[in-house]
Amino acid sequence: MLIKEYKDEIKIESHIVKKYNMHDIAYFDIETTGFDKDKDYIILISLGYFDEEGFYNIKQYYAEELHDEAEVLNVFASDLAKFNKWCSYNGMAFDEPFIIKRMEKYNTFFTSPVEHIDLYRLIRPYYKQLGMDRCNLKSVEKFLGVHREDQIDGAMSVELYYKYLETKDEELKDIIMLHNYEDVLNLPKIFKLIFDVENNSELVREDCITEKQLKFLKSLINKHNIILSYDVEKISKKSAAKIIDLILKGNRNSEELNNIIFSSY
User: Fold this and answer.
1) CA proximity to 186, closest of 142, 146, 152
2) CA gap 224, 55 in Å, rounded
3) pTM (2 d.p.)
4) Could you tell me how far CA 231 lies from the centroid of its own chain?
């Protein structure tokens, strides 16, 4: 296994850093050999975080051989244990469950941070109104004017990795690591867009809760004295339907209901 560490200076407006407590977050991204959590491997993880001086540190864990995956996961889990929040781009659907499954394979002790900030889920309901054709990471970066040196995508990184295993070509390794490095380098920059979206009253999520759902949900919340930390007027129709169904079935667990709302924001 190879570990590389970097230190960068990222300029983000102080009010945005403060609002989202960005210095308390672990930013992460993974590269895998495919989409099958049972058969495919994690070949690279990048972990970003701000230090006490305000510099942005990125630590990369690279599997120089497929069997290095267990060591990569073990060291990553140890470093991540310092954080209660982590941040990704579409990591709730892919990165987090993939990591958990691979940790289980090696019986590695691992507990996910309590809060997962998935920037993709926060932007997805508004990207068309913002003028973007797609909602992938590179489209968001382009919208924000973020420049990348990296010229590959996740699928290409898989091809390059298998070539690396055959040839041990250092240039191939550097290309893969640069791709994953820039994914994590740019995550904190996206919080500016999150801030702008939250403070733009003209933006309305495309899949927003219906008026009928909202009225019924509010009546259930009041009736059962359920305490929610988020504004239910901004959740999706799908999440609203799930919450209403849970409450009607007798679930009054505020933490569980809040988690559903948070994942829909």
Assistant:
1) 146
2) 46
3) 0.82
4) 21
